[in-house]
Amino acid sequence: MKLFCAAISLLVIESAFGFTSLAPGSRPAFSLTQCSATTLDGRKITGDVKPLNNFVLVKIGEAREQTEGGILLTGKAKIKKTEGTVVAIGPGRTHQDSGIVFDMPVSEGQGVVYGKFDGTEINIGGAKHVLIRDDDILVKFTGDLSLDSVDMVRDNVLVYVENDESETDGGILIAKSSSADKKPSTGIVVKVGPGKMASDGSLMSMDVAVDDMVKFRDFAGMDVEIDGKEYSVVKMADILAQF
What we know:
Elements: H1 2-17, E1 38-40, E2 43-45, E3 55-60, E4 83-89, E5 111-114, E6 120-124, E7 127-133, E8 137-141, E9 150-152, E10 156-160, E11 165-167, E12 173-175, E13 186-192, E14 213-216, E15 222-226, E16 229-235, E17 239-242
Antiparallel strand pairs: 1-2, 3-4, 3-7, 4-5, 5-8, 6-7, 8-9, 10-13, 10-16, 11-12, 13-14, 14-17, 15-16
GO molecular function: ATP binding; metal ion binding; protein folding chaperone; protein-folding chaperone binding; unfolded protein binding
Signal peptide: 1-18
InterPro entries: Chaperonin_GroES, Chaperonin_GroES_sf, GroES-like_sf
């Protein structure tokens, strides 16, 4: 980028003073758009923002404008999106003992869903972005977010948990909003990731499979909404039993 801008400046000087430093026909083609600068958090920069280590640069999707009941939201009331499109990825994390570089689980152009409180938000050229670690990615997808397009990363497991209502010992149904703070932690496995990477770069086996019923640690699951249904993304290490 800096070379492009310097070359354009040279062309301007040559035109003004009537001399040419390059032989006819050898001058490279440049355009003024190549010299345009963007901004990072309001500060002008040249070149692209490149993540380092195992960081991923994601352009955040638009905030939800209304609730499921159709109520329009404005300003701070808009529901923050925790999904977006991968713009750039870092080279990967290097294991501190073996020195092996772990491949990144996503590529540019893919969609990702990440944790609500994960990452560092930045503004690039007036658009909201976030820098997250590859470990912060809950699911990845291509095209629109749907159960068919979703894939799991690392040792993540997608679990469907039915938690609309529960029943007391006396047979009284309790709505989800009225039940105790304890979250449901039993469900059916819908999708399974390829596995966590060992220090030698190999993948560690996953001990559960699709359609298994599993019990995982309370509050270990991260909620993800797909096709209007709520799922939990759970790390393999947090799954206690299968049945």
